[in-house]
Amino acid sequence: MSILSFLATKIRRGNALYARHIPGGIKLFPHKKESLRSRIMSTPIPEQLHIPTESDNSSALSSLVKVGDRVLKYQNLGFYTPKTSQDNNQTHNIPIHAPTSGTVTAIELVAVASAHSEQLCIQLKTDGLDEEVPLQEEPDYQGLEPSQLVKKITNAGVMGVRNADFPVANKLSSASNRNINLLIINATECEPYISADEALIRERADSVILGADILRIASQAERCVIAIEDSKKEAIAALIHASTTPALEKVKVEIQIIPSKYPAGGEKQIIQCLTGKEVPSGKHPASIGILTQNTDTAYATFKAIIEGKSCISRITTLTGKALKTPKNFETLIGTSATFLFELCGVNRSTKTNSIAGGSLTGRQLTNENAVIDKTSNCLIAGTLEEFPVKPPPQACIRCGFCADVCPAKLLPQQLLAFAQSENNNELSKHGLFDCIECGACDYVCPSHIPLVNHYQESKSRIHARELSLEKSQQWQQRFQFHQYRIKRDKELALARKANPPKQKTHTERQESSAQSHMEQEFFSKEKASREIAAAVARVKARRNQATTKNELKKEPMPGDSE
Amino acid sequence: MSPFISSWLVQISVSTILLLAALTIITRVSHYLRTQKTSQASLVGRINHLLPQTQCGQCGHLGCLPYARAISSGEAINKCPPGGMETIRDLAELLNETELTLDPAHGQFKPFSVAVIREQECIGCTKCIQACPVDAVLGGPKLMHTVIEAECTGCDLCVEPCPVDCIDMIVTASTAKLEFSNASYAGSHDQRLNRL
Predict the structure, then answer these.
(1) ipTM for the predicted complex
(2) Which end of chain B is more exposed for a tag (fewer CB within 10 A), N or C?
């Protein structure tokens, strides 16, 4: 009986939410204090903004404004079709909004902080007046339907996961097709330099909680949990304080504290930590009934629904030893990195490199005029002391440190050997595509081997090979059809040679042409009559619809004379 | 040892052996079923699947399928320039042969490119249409021709018959994109080295 009761508790605990041990990971020295010394500040309005459109060609962009137009704050400037969409039949056009009032001066290619390549950006010359379009507030969100909420969130241009231009609406509407049990708001922020989410929660915990609740209703999830690392004491206190205020009593959002470890904030890692479930290889978390969203997404959702404000700004951490006053800024989308660095008093003589994103997963900012987009949460201006030059890579000594720290339980040294010998089959078998590119293996490698870089290269090589195999199948089919066509044409020619078609006499030809004329006329007459009938039917239907609409409109009016 | 315990031991051991035997049989049968599925596709078909299907004839055969037949009857696997080392590696793995380098007698490996007709210069001779193995050229007699980019295999066969030399082989945006991403990875790697 004791075994049975033990199993029962085990099963009960299996579904409960508590912080579990996750494999791998490293402890990093946090550098968050520097940027958390001051409160979140709004930047002054820069003279020029470049609003990114997430695409490099104009075909994916449908612009509503022309060069020379004056636009107001929160005005819709156009739409673009995102490249990534979870289900091909569900593509949401993402709107772009003006961060402040001004004049559109150009639409051109500009470097963007979180993207590899340049993007088309709408250049806006600001006028400093900050005039707004009228806003539609909706403080009573709990009465709204999930589909209405999703539509509102989409129209506000709220973006999803950082480092990927994944629209939240795609995630939410695909979630509504499946059964979502749990919505996790990811407030872990395990990267050592970024403190944007922490600052946001410290100062605006109630907004984040409300946003999380809106996301929960929109995704039709049963539970909603905010997961936060235990090192963020003040943020946890703020969350608990906010959730106990009477204004937020109705809100069904839980708070879960997890041990701090890099990369506990990875999507798969946080799910494993909270629920003990692993996301199946090559599948989305929605397949096991879980959805994850970021803290800044929750905040943007709060603004979009309750205040009616579209997503035009985000919290960005400005940090690094080359800055005099590291800070968290509420930056307008489209502000350039140089402008922000200057605001923090950058010391140009000591600054050696600038990074967009965290110190481990971020990317080097080659162009300092790159602009902030909806996913850039951090800019680091580093000195040589902070980021010393790494010695050249040496041979792998098979120490196995990388395997110990891998959060996906892979064998990094083995993958490295296969990547160097370009053995695609073995790479796939050893789970290369489960690698989350967190860089923990790079960090611990005593031979300074850039492992993640090898994996990225291998991934792109395997994708290219798959693409070429797909293409070769298409070519093979076409070649087979070509051969068949040539054979058929030859046979037809031979057959025609064997018994050539009889020459028609003059009268016959006349007859046949007359007949065809008749037929044509007959056909066209019939066709015309059919078309006329269809048009009449259409008009009738429209009229009917109009009358019913009028009736509907009239019905609810009280005191209408009969 | 009492007879009770010994009989118990015998029972346990017999049942374990039976269980193991059953497990082995199950795994064997499932393995057999799985391998049979793959061996149904003939060797020639599998070799053909790995070839790039450009139908360029640089191997000296009239297309990829004849070369696949030749390989299955013992010809060298390094005669396919469009496939490059990737194809040779895959073929060597399939046939359990040693990896050879590309035979330079049959040509050099080039990045994937597609034929593009300079349309102002085209005289509408239809010679490229006849040369194209996958019917990727559109046009008629004395009318301008053009190449469907998505269908072009980059086999070069249309370049030679053109009487006015108005066909260029051009590296496409998609392959350029791939190379770009590789280059950017290499760049970010260098910076990563500096940083960590």
Answers:
(1) 0.70
(2) N
